Amino acid sequence: MSVQQPTLSGIRAAIIDLDGTMVHTAPDFHVAINRMRSDLGLRPLDIETITRFVGKGTENLMRQVLSVDYAAAEVETHFAQALASYHAHYIAINGQYSSLYPDVHEGLAALQKKGLRLACVTNKPIAFALPLLEKTGLHGYFDLVYGGDSLPKKKPDPLPLLTVCEDFGLRPEHVVAIGDSSNDAQAARAAGCRVLNVPYGYNHGESIHDVDSDGIVSTLLEAANCLSQ
Ligand SMILES: O=C(O)COP(=O)(O)O
Ligand SMILES: [Mg+2]
């Protein structure tokens, strides 16, 4: 199938998502969640189930994995213990089971070479995001990093993207968000930014082709190739 390459002009900055876009973190989520579940006396979940729950931050992830076993009221009873256990287990293994997707370094370098400023906006807590960016050697590409708990609202709310636009002194139409999920696309649409999706990440088990965006690119390098200032 030949897919038409999107072309976006007037782009001065790119906001890049982390989980499912730059780093394949599902195996880290899988290990940390199941260690937490073991602490609570719960059976392990498979990686596909856990991956479908990723995308709307840690608190939502906790509630989803507890909802497999508990009714809503019981989820809240176990929430604090689960979150503390998960946090400790995730910090202990952060990045150990993860891998970079193809052409991430090449794509970020190409975006920089085009003169674009780069920000990373993730729904991952900032205490997880920064060590992971360091470990994968990606931190140096970014002028700004916002985690899911850095600001009062996270994606799909437009606030993190609008904050980046303001920090960079750019109007949203000059900024493109690149991500793997509907959260990235909805945040970008609400902010008035452009948006490109990658098809290989985590979109709650749904097809990325059903998401309203300006196009789908197979890698960050392909994204760089279809953007111009
Ligand atoms: O940790 C999450 O919930 C998702 O993080 P992301 O925004 O980097 O995809
Ligand atoms: Mg993502």
UniProtKB/TrEMBL annotation:
Q: Which SUPFAM superfamilies match?
A: HAD-like
Concerning CDD domains, the annotation shows: HAD_PGPase
Enumerate the transmembrane spans.
none
Does this entry carry the keyword Hydrolase?
Answer: yes
Q: Which UniProt keywords apply?
A: Carbohydrate metabolism, Hydrolase, Magnesium, Metal-binding
Q: Which residues bind Mg(2+)?
A: D17, D19, D180
Q: What reaction(s) does this enzyme catalyze?
A: 2-phosphoglycolate + H2O = glycolate + phosphate
Q: Which Pfam families match?
A: Hydrolase
MF-aspect GO terms = phosphoglycolate phosphatase activity
- CC cofactor: Mg(2+)
Query: In which pathway is this protein known to take part?
Result: Organic acid metabolism; glycolate biosynthesis; glycolate from 2-phosphoglycolate: step 1/1
| Its EC number(s) | 3.1.3.18
Active site per the UniProt annotation: D17
Entries under PANTHER family matching the protein = PHOSPHOGLYCOLATE PHOSPHATASE
| NCBIfam families for the chain | HAD-SF-IA-v1, HAD-SF-IA-v3, PGP_bact, PRK13222.1-2
Family recorded in the similarity comment? Belongs to the HAD-like hydrolase superfamily. CbbY/CbbZ/Gph/YieH family.
Function in brief = Specifically catalyzes the dephosphorylation of 2-phosphoglycolate. Is involved in the dissimilation of the intracellular 2-phosphoglycolate formed during the DNA repair of 3'-phosphoglycolate ends, a major class of DNA lesions induced by oxidative stress.
Q: What is this protein called?
A: Phosphoglycolate phosphatase
What organism is this sequence from? Noviherbaspirillum album
